[in-house]
Amino acid sequence: MNIILLGPPGAGKGTQAQKLVAERGMVQLSTGDMLREARKSGTEMGKIVADVMDRGDLVTDEIVIGLIEEKLEAEKGAGFIFDGFPRTLKQADALGALLEKHGQKLDAVIEMQVDDAALVSRITGRSTCGDCGEVYHDVTKPIPADGKCSKCGGTEFKRRADDNEESLKQRLMEYYKKTSPLIGYYYAKGDLSSVDGLASIDEVSGAIAKVLD
Ligand code: AMP
Question: Which of 10, 25, 92, 191 could form a disulfide with 186 if both were Cys (CB 3.0 to 4.6 A apart)?
Fold first, then answer.
């Protein structure tokens, strides 16, 4: 089963993707994570995308489509969760073509609905475990009192360079201009389901499970 988690930055796509990986053995394909890896490794591509990401702009379609194509060929599992991809109509068309080429199809697109006011506090309070990527939040899911990640025991936590109010404004602008048209695109294809992304983490995953089962 292959699904897309669609929603603005801070909607909870990464958190829900991690739960689906743990519970269903699916493979999370997050273009944001792939791009952060690329910039850490200091490759030519990493250097090109670093500034773009910190500003909150979108990286070119060619780069992210190339990353997804590589992963579709390399990874195997009980289906893919596309997290943060596609973000433009061109990427959506490319994903359809790539899945077809690999004899696969898209089973569901889940739109995680949240209002903008909630996103600022979600994004600015966010941190992740430096070892396993588990997502924490200062208010809703604080780092355990012993300072150890509840999933892997890691003790290093980091905040993303683009998780600040200034970048978020631009990321939201990009979302509404370039990504939100995908809601109509997938609705017209009959693939779209929407869940309330403001509910608790477990309620959201329950709503997603209902769609998938
Ligand atoms: P994310 O972790 O999904 O919030 O992505 C972080 C940043 O990576 C975005 O603000 C973009 O700069 C870049 N990015 C991630 N996925 C894509 C994509 N599918 N298309 C273009 N840029 C992307």
Answer: 191
158: annotated active-site residue: no
Size of the chain in residues = 213
* pTM: predicted TM-score of the whole model, two decimal places: 0.91
**Cα 26 vs. chain centroid, distance in angstroms?**
14
Q: What is the pLDDT of residues 54-68, one digit of tens each?
A: 999 999 999 999 999
Q: What is the CA radius of gyration of the chain?
A: 16
Catalytic member of 122, 171, 189, 210: 171
- Where do the H-state alpha helices sit in 102-198? 116-124, 165-174, 181-189
* DSSP annotation string for 5-49: EE-STTSSHHHHHHHHHHHH--EEEEHHHHHHHHHHTT-HHHHHH
Residues paired with residue 137 on neighbouring β-strands, in sequence order: 126, 141
